[in-house]
Write a structure and sequence with these properties.
The protein has 252 residues and is α/β, with parallel strands linked by helices. It is built from 8 helices and 15 strands. Helices cover 35% and strands 25% of the residues. The chain starts with a strand and ends with a helix. It binds beta-D-glucopyranose (BGC).
Length: 252
């Protein structure tokens, strides 16, 4: 069964058809830049254009870079401020003409990794951190997600952790991998103090470059890159849409 998965990020909107039994991409991944300003109408239009490239009709899963509760966007750290309280699931479904299921982008990546990737079969506490424009987090225990954890906004030096050690900060401040990893290690220590995960999976754009900074990381937990790299968000969103849509269909 193939479901369209979409990952909306601070800099790009990516999509592909996903085989939800295996977690494999069945098409090439398409990417368009996130419109600026990233208003609800502009993003809904861009997502529609991306979807039109696929010959697809069915439920769509969509990861979104904010707190999402019952299809409503509740925060806007790395997207236009007008998103707060927008019923995004309704907006996207109406614009596209197909049911769209929305969830936090890090939760989507976590679902993919726990179902098909580096966290598969793990029953202990597993933590996923997406490192990109922001820092996204997902926590699993006994394979179950605690959604919308938003721990990229833990306070460090008086501001959100993501303003101290995201990949965007590394680029803007022109930090070496060693300098960035030393900041990120402080964040990992904070996470370990609070949650004692046994496995930490690093996802998002920086997961592709794991080899460049792995030697500088230190934590008590095992640290691995996302096995599905930065496709994880697309795969998890598709998987969630398939799951939620089958529940909806069963209850009709
Ligand atoms: C947002 C999170 C998101 C993360 C990664 C943060 O700024 O608050 O919801 O998961 O960025 O995109």
């Amino acid at each position: 069964m193939e479901i369209l998965g979409i990952d909306i990020g601070g800099s790009g909107i990516k999509g592909a058809l996903v085989d939800i039994r295996t977690g494999e991409l069945k098409t090439e991944r398409l990417r368009i830049p996130t419109p600026r300003p990233s208003t609800p109408q502009a993003i809904a239009q861009a997502v529609k254009e991306l979807v039109d490239n696929f010959n697809y009709n069915g439920p769509i899963g969509c990861g979104f870079p904010a707190l999402v509760i019952n299809g409503v966007v509740k925060t806007a750290a790395n997207i236009d401020a007008t998103w707060v309280d927008v019923k995004a699931e309704e907006l996207f479904s109406a614009q596209i003409g197909m049911p769209v299921y929305l969830l936090n982008d890090a939760d989507a990546a976590g679902i993919a990794e726990i179902t098909f990737g580096a966290g598969k079969g793990r029953m202990d506490t597993v933590f996923l951190i997406t490192i990109g424009t922001g820092l996204g987090t997902a926590i699993f225990t006994e394979g179950k997600l605690l959604p919308n954890t938003e721990l990229g906004h833990l306070k460090m030096y008086g501001k959100s952790a993501e303003k101290y050690c995201s990949d965007a900060v590394r680029k803007v401040k022109e930090l070496t991998w060693k300098q960035w990893a030393s900041r990120f290690n402080e964040y990992l220590a904070y996470i370990e103090f609070l949650f004692s995960p046994s496995l930490i999976i690093l996802g998002g754009g920086a997961s592709k470059k794991f080899e460049l900074y792995a030697e500088f990381l230190n934590a008590k937990a095992e640290i691995v890159p996302a096995q599905l790299r930065n496709q994880a968000g697309i795969i998890g969103a598709a998987y969630r849409a398939w799951f939620k849509d089958s529940l909806n269909t069963a209850s009709q």
